[in-house]
Amino acid sequence: RLVDDLLEVSRTTRGKMELTIEPVDVAQVVAAAIETSRPNIDSARHTLSLQLPPQTLHVSGDFARVSQILANVVNNAAKYTPKGGLISLSAAREGDMVTFRVRDSGVGIPAEFIASIFEPFTQVDRTLARSHGGLGIGLTLVRKLVEMQNGTVSARSEGRNRGSEFTVRLPVADAGAVPVR
């Protein structure tokens, strides 16, 4: 998995990764991401809450990569939240963007790390990251994949042991486009 992540970061940096941009159903891509993350959530006995829009919403992106982005952020939330914690994932339309928010009740991010959290090999808590096999490249990959799909990603936290929130914004799919999935 680590080697795969390193190779993907390298491919995105060199512009060698091709994406299939199409209308992607938000509910379906969230379900795929949660399916990928479910073992980590369940093994830590976390409570996961989902808030999805009642109406069908489509994001313009690559289904596999949007799912990968969301799964990576949810997996980080599961990793950095003590057993039995809370994780929420929401999606909503905000103007011409779909905004995904992943919040957790975890260890939080100290203010001095917020600016560099998406840089390669950045780890807030090296002992915890190493105990879970992390190298500090997952969020770098998230940022690159989001940017390749004309989106943005940000993180915020009120500090240590106050949880964190990651926000991914991707363009809404053209209303006239027909979803492939």
Write the SSE topology.
Layout: H1 2-13, E1 22-25, H2 26-43, E2 47-51, E3 58-61, H3 63-79, E4 86-94, E5 97-104, H4 111-114, H5 126-131, H6 138-148, E6 152-156, E7 164-171
Parallel strand pairs: 2-4
Antiparallel strand pairs: 1-3, 4-5, 5-7, 6-7
Protein model, in words:
- The protein is α+β, with helices and mostly antiparallel strands and 181 residues long.
- Helices cover 38% and strands 24% of the residues.
- It has 6 helices and 7 strands; from the N terminus they run αβαββαββαααββ.
- It starts with a helix and ends in a 10-residue tail after the last strand.
Give a quick rundown of the structure.
The protein is α+β, with helices and mostly antiparallel strands and 181 residues long. It has six helices and seven strands, in the order αβαββαββαααββ.
